[in-house]
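hi! just following up on the protien thing from before. the input was this:
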Amino acid sequence: MTQRKVWSSALSAILLTGLLAGCAGGNNTPAESGGQSGATGSGTEVKEEAPKDVTLRFSWWGSEVRHKALLEAIDLYTENNPHVTIEPEYGGFDGYYQKLVTQFAGGTAPDLTPLSVDWIDELAVKSDLVVDLYTLKDYIDLDAFDPAFLERYAVFGGKLAGLPMGVNGMVNLYNKDFFAKYDIPEDTKWDWQTIHEIGKRVHEQDPNAYLLGMFDYRTFLQPFVNQQTGNQWIQDDKTLGFEVDSLEAAFAYYQQLLDDGVMQPVAESSLYKDLAENLQWQQGNIGMMFTLASTIAKVKSYTPNLGVSMYPVPTDAKTSAVLVNPSNPLAISKASKHPEEAAKFASWLLTSPEAAAILKDVYSVPVVTANADKLVADGAIDPTVNEAVQVALENPGDPVNALSNNQELNQIAQDILERVAFKQLSAADAAAELTARLGEKLSSMP
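and the predicted 3d structure came back as:
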């Protein structure tokens, strides 16, 4: 059992204790802050009070480029708002979720933290641990955001779970040099059949070359099945959005890609936490990957000559299943003692031109259109990242609902996908087991 799986299984019990202990000392509504002026009851004018000193903790994960940008933005904000001290806490992605769960449970969660979209169901919806940012609208420039985008991708149960730190989308990212070497047209319209045909040809031509690297649940299994059904992976009524035969077809296709050399063997690809760090990718022996726009900057640091195209969509697909979502919605903990100051900082960080000029594309393309347009015009956003977002927005699938992003349900699917890759399960057995385990877990969920 993976460490993440253990954490997910224990989450409800842990957070129940943490809510009682931690949120009791918190403040869920905007507190009084300094800077107010007005008149006394007798009509005597009073001087404007200096803002009260506050300290906020801001935690995030990411690359060194992201760390540097956010630290620079914090310095600028606190220079202009000297009553605010912001304590940064940052590191890599591994272990971040587990750490965050522990902090929420102990009442020590940071005031502000980005959320991965697959954490929102547990942390924002079920456990209700973050502030509905609509309640802080007096401190946030919500007019800077597209209201339709917020409602479609960041609102759950009528509550705004976080402010999008960028616009993200799933695309096909390819190595232009690889495509030229193996005579693959860059304007190829990809579907699953085309991937198999071209990938098999490439591997037959060069046994050391693979069209694709690794797959996972999010980049392959869920969208492949959703394209067949047109449904959510898990429906809002806690029923499965697919029949077992759709799942079996997905696993059988996956096995075929591995058997025919379209994909790098998992015994090799599993040695790396992501494809960008895979030596075969870096050496130009893998042609393309399905990835989010927000990862492209990192991938280009290893392989600079890249292009993007639409994620594979069959002509008979019932939905494109092209993933579009907000990049890591920035949430405010309900335990924060200064939610109004946290909201002011979050608003400035994600809407001001000054902050946008610092952050650039560390969270993909900014969601505020005016800022994004300015950065693109100035050449401050990697053109490949911007193109990736635009390509994904051309044919987006329906927003993934909360249950289909559930951390524990996702891990069940990922575990079985890996067992198929290592030939520990047949396609039929994998489909049957995944259907049964998801059904069992859903029936036990509150």
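Residues 168-324+400-444 form a domain with the D-Maltodextrin-Binding Protein; domain 2 fold (CATH 3.40.190.10).
Residues 1-44 have pLDDT under 50 and may be disordered.
cheers
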